[in-house]
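Suppose you are handed a protein chain with no further information: no name, no annotation, nothing but its sequence. What can you learn? This example shows the usual starting point.
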Amino acid sequence: MREWVIGGAQMGAIQKSDSRESVVERMVSLLDQAAEKGCDLVVFPELALTTFFPRWYMEEQAEVDTWFEREMPNAATQPLFDRAREKRIAISFGYAELTPEGRHFNTSIVTNRDGEIVGKYRKIHLPGHVEYDSERDFQHLEKRYFEPGDLGFETFDNEGTLMGMCICNDRRWPETWRVMGLQGVELVMLGYNTPSINSQNRGEGLEKRLYHSELSVTAGAYQNATWGVAVAKAGVEDGFPLMGGSIIVDPDGFVVARAQTEGDELITATCDMDLCQFGKQTIFDFARHRRIEHYGRITSQVGVER
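A reasonable first move is to predict its three-dimensional structure. Written in structure tokens, the prediction is:
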């Protein structure tokens, strides 16, 4: 396929008390809406099955593990896979993954239109902190509950289109997009759970946070001549607000669809993958224009050095 009708399935708040099954019912409802609009692919948010649990400080690993999925699909998510297969719609969504070896990742998967998982990504740029921070307005403990991803930024041939994934904070790092761009990526899918308030800078505000999110996606898409789909989980979860702002972005960096709410909402766009080729063959023809002899610092150091 070279032309996909893509749905961004923004989800509203998921409360701590909500069951996986009730959340999957909402996801299936969004999938049904997508089927009515002729979608071939639907992208759901990061940690789509639960509340954003890294805001809660937990000391007992057994409690932490209740938020993780040990297999995918599982009993709770099988109805989503079944409906997607029935409707011939590929899906991508995020969840907390507990591997058989006991490792913990913030993960996203993508399927083909037969409901088969054809790609997996594990979040690499984990924000936040490890221990309880009394100076923050609220906690952001991803570094406590997850390991950095170990699968890299790979691309996957999904029915003739090169697709890649990243998650939330990854979108803010240009290296994320460039590594996939260097593989010829044509569609980057990402979900996020982003607080409406900066826990370390209340003056930043929702308007600026939405702008920075959109800037990261539009710049990444443009600079790598790829489509981008960024999908939020939004609304007030257990008293904590998450921002919306889900968007679909074309390979020139223009927003072609945008969510208007902070609830369950489907946005759609017809995305021609061949539109990526002009940018890849001209201004972002990497083979002609990249000067890697000057880029050593990008992989040789982490912090700022003179």
